[in-house]
Amino acid sequence: MEEKIKGVNLGAWLVLEKWMTPRLFDRTPSTDEYYLAHDMDPAAYEEKIKTHRATFITEGDFVKIAAAGFNVVRIPVPHFIFGDREPFIGCIDELDRAFNWARAYGLKVLIDLHTAPYSQNAFDNGGISGVCKWAQHPEEVEFVLDVLTRLAERYKDDSALFGIEVLNEPLTPEMWDIIDPQDQFEPRDQELAEGSGPISFAFLYDFYQEAYDRLRKVLPSDKTIVFHDGFDLMAWEGFFKDRTFDNVMLDTHHYLVFNNEPDQENLEHYKAHLNQIGTQIEKVSQYVPVVTGEWCLFNQHIAQNQPNMTDDEVTSFYNELWGASVDAWNKGDGYFYWTYKLSIDTVNTPDRIGKDAWDVSRAIARGWAQV
Amino acid sequence: MEEKIKGVNLGAWLVLEKWMTPRLFDRTPSTDEYYLAHDMDPAAYEEKIKTHRATFITEGDFVKIAAAGFNVVRIPVPHFIFGDREPFIGCIDELDRAFNWARAYGLKVLIDLHTAPYSQNAFDNGGISGVCKWAQHPEEVEFVLDVLTRLAERYKDDSALFGIEVLNEPLTPEMWDIIDPQDQFEPRDQELAEGSGPISFAFLYDFYQEAYDRLRKVLPSDKTIVFHDGFDLMAWEGFFKDRTFDNVMLDTHHYLVFNNEPDQENLEHYKAHLNQIGTQIEKVSQYVPVVTGEWCLFNQHIAQNQPNMTDDEVTSFYNELWGASVDAWNKGDGYFYWTYKLSIDTVNTPDRIGKDAWDVSRAIARGWAQV
Description:
Chain A has 371 residues and is α/β, with parallel strands linked by helices. Chain A contains 14 helices and 8 strands.
């Protein structure tokens, strides 16, 4: 695209995360989508998941996304999108409808394969908390490559297709140690989690090359193939300089996470941090286009101080943060906000105060963000 | 209120209408909420209805409604709101949450009792299509009065309570003959529908007086008690002049329905028609405050011609229609648009083209409406 990507993720629609739509997990012991599908009676599960999908994102949302000034939507999809992995229920019809909406309202779609069987990161959003063994199962690696190929075949001629991201957030070794996903996302089945570990760069390079080779054969050259950086933006110079790719992009995710260090939870530090990332993005952009595929305004400063701030102070803080963020992302090819909307209720569950900043539809309505 | 009511209905949230959220009726033979609850397995029904309620309207919608400039929401609620009419599932917790959202974002709430057992109008939105026998069942009239009293008791001290509308759209004799509801909304069970007929004005006057007497005892004087006009705005002069009421309001509904008469389906005719209603509203306002509790921009001219109109032409048409409508409603105390949002898909089901005008959230996003 000539202009920068001003994008938004349709999170919590076809891939669930309990913290984003907590009431969807009512009446179950489940904390992730894997167990939601396994814990529930199949008929009740079908009603829950299909009602959610039909209600959470509709044509009207595409109208509003376009009207807000966004130009691309990134749609996280699960590995079971084609409905061939029981007890999960497929959602390819939903994606078909979304492409029709995107075309009608002048938006492009980046399909983002967000989960893999046995997970690529052990996060709740990888589908199953605390488990990360996908890369150890060659048949599941092949399954993922096949899902990607089927998605490419299905939408290759659709004018609304921006591209396909081959896998969201594979967790690489250094970040595995820092994030410690099995501590944050405790496995429910220790036996299933046994043997979990990070995705090595060696594996990831091979997987990306293989995915590229298969998709590039199918996709016209104007469709972009996107690789996530595995949370290590500076680890890709050799990969891209040693190989020849046509129309690829590196996706990097940046949230304001500083483990509540008091001297870091303020606007000055956030801006300095964003500026630093912008410099990295600029550098990497010399050998591969870079998009910030996930970020948001949420930060601990507001979460902790909002009840004592005026509305104007909150708005001004977010406006500054938005500007500094977008400046950084525009050192590359642009951004996708995480996320378009979520059902978090800061009024009836006040421990969620501040988390509404993850919801760009509310951020826009409140004047916190201007696309 | 000092300023005019600039209101919006939260239709299709706690009271369902199949045409507004058609996919909610997938996998069932049901065409209304009565049969949805009776046709489905209870566990599956619970998942469907609770997922819909938790997803369709959330805190974020109250943020956006306030940001758009509305000042009151009218919330249609079913007679089974307290959960005492199996197999229906109550939704008083949802209404509690809505009051908390309204307070947080500076909105008022008009509670609108939208259905009665055996229905007051035989419409799909009365709960059971083709049946209208509520007024013939004294114990159900008493049940409704009791539900109203319980609602009043629950919210009487809530600063967000604007008032309570005692019953939506009771269908009076003349309009029964014109609308012919059993033709439009065919009864599924002929035996149950047997004996259905309109609500007489004599009954309605008595019912409104009784409801007023009970609610006025409970509600502080700043809370408004609202009566629907039974689709006959000019039939109420005697009622209000013969009696003394404290803080009541008459609700009148106006849609642009002209049975597709070609010479009537144009902007000039719509404006003349609205002007005429405005004159009536002005007249009736001399003896009772009048609010237009339901109306919308939908019209056959756009539904039939939109594919051949430019976006600018459509926008300009709707802008003129919006202005003429609000001018008419402001001859009284203001309006509530029907409705805030609906899930109709004009892209994937093109026979619905034009029906997106029922959705004021889309109308605002597209520049068709400016509150």
